[in-house]
Write a structure and sequence with these properties.
binds tryptophanyl-5'AMP, 5 strands, Rossmann fold, about 325 residues, Tyrosyl-Transfer RNA Synthetase, two-stranded parallel ribbon, mainly alpha
Length: about 325
């Protein structure tokens, strides 16, 4: 039986954090054997915020190394960068011509930027359409993402439906895969962990960076001896990502009994994070010393993907009428 298709991507817009890992990358790794998996680096999307050559190219390479260090296996997964697949921008244009401005004005990311009176580039406004192209061009069945991407998946489905209505059945409707427990990983201030809120714990940070981030997690002012509600505590929410079963239960009990200081809870969390990432760090060092290998993996991925979509793009051009 042919495997269903999984596709997802990350923007190379900064350093990968624990929210990216648990909200998305871990699912890519866990599901890479069960699906035909396409994982990419959304560098066109990152251009909506980064307009610096060195920064963008460094970030692209870093995300590629992060993916590999986290356990994506190029034997299982087609790993590539979006800009190697120019057809996605062609498809974006076709979609742009069938959707309306008010449809895109409803996008949360656009509305947020608008309310902050930011200067909004056309790329940012069109962001959901480019993302729809990434997904629909590959006939993806499922798209593992965090909760913040749910609306984008709805956009992809709506755009597919509109195209299919106008030109006939062409695109599959993709499903978002969002795991409830990790849909919104909180940052050190309790809001969603996000590069733009500067509240992240970097996945591949140094011990010092991880310590600094964890020690600044915001808590209430309960004293060490006071009983505490673990479910109300930002530190405990992060412990839940690393501890399971008995270990988690016993920590929960210590919270409720009183006697556990926030400082001790943070120190425990620092150890959990450092132990958890240490094997991935080693792998990452390997790739830092073998960048050519990383670049080759991306090239091979792109060439496979380009081949795979040639026929689909031809069908699309035929349906639109630009093939004569
Ligand atoms: P990006 O780069 O912002 O984030 C990458 C993935 O990490 C998830 N994520 C989180 N999950 C849980 N808790 C958090 N605090 C958290 N922060 C980030 C995101 O939901 C995402 O899954 N638009 C996408 C990139 C993209 C894409 C695509 C994804 C472009 N084309 C096609 C899927 C399919 C983005 O900006 O993700």
């Amino acid at each position: 039986m042919t495997k269903k298709r999984l596709l997802s991507g990350i923007q190379p817009s900064g350093t990968i954090h624990i929210g990216n890992y648990f909200g998305a990358i871990k699912q890519f790794v866990d599901l890479q054997d069960s699906y035909e998996a396409f994982i990419f680096i959304a560098d066109f999307h990152a251009m909506t915020t980064i307009q610096n050559k060195k920064e963008l190219s460094n970030n692209i390479l870093n995300v590629a190394m992060d993916y590999l260090a986290c356990g994506l296996d190029p034997k299982n997964v087609h790993l590539f960068k979006q800009s190697d697949i120019p057809s996605v921008t062609e498809l974006t244009w076709y979609f742009n011509c069938i959707i309306t401005m008010p449809f895109l004005e409803r996008a949360t990311a656009y509305k947020d930027a608008y309310q902050k009176a930011k200067e909004i580039n056309v790329g940012l406004f069109d962001y959901p359409v480019l993302m729809a192209s990434d997904i629909l061009i590959q006939d993806a069945d499922i798209v593992p993402v965090g909760q913040d991407q749910r609306q984008h998946l709805e956009y992809a489905r709506d755009i597919a439906i509109k195209f299919n209505n106008i030109y006939g059945e062409t695109f599959k409707l993709p499903e978002a895969l969002i795991l409830k427990e990790v849909a919104i990983v909180p940052g050190i201030d309790g809001r969603k962990m996000s590069k733009s809120y500067k509240n992240t714990i970097p996945l591949f940070g140094t011990d010092e960076e991880i310590k600094k981030a964890v020690m600044s997690i915001v808590t209430d002012s309960k004293r060490p001896e006071d009983p505490k509600d673990p479910e109300e505590c930002n530190i405990f929410t992060l412990h839940k990502l690393f501890l399971k079963g008995e270990e988690l239960l016993s920590l929960k009990k210590r919270y409720k009994d009183g006697g556990l200081s926030y400082k001790e809870s943070k120190e425990m969390l620092i150890n959990e994070i450092i132990n958890f990432i240490s094997p991935m760090r080693e792998k990452r060092i390997y790739y830092e010393n073998h960048k050519d290998e990383v670049i080759n993996i991306l090239k091979e991925g792109a060439s496979f993907v380009k081949n795979g979509i040639t026929q689909k793009m031809d069908i699309i051009r035929n349906k639109i009428g630009v093939n004569i």
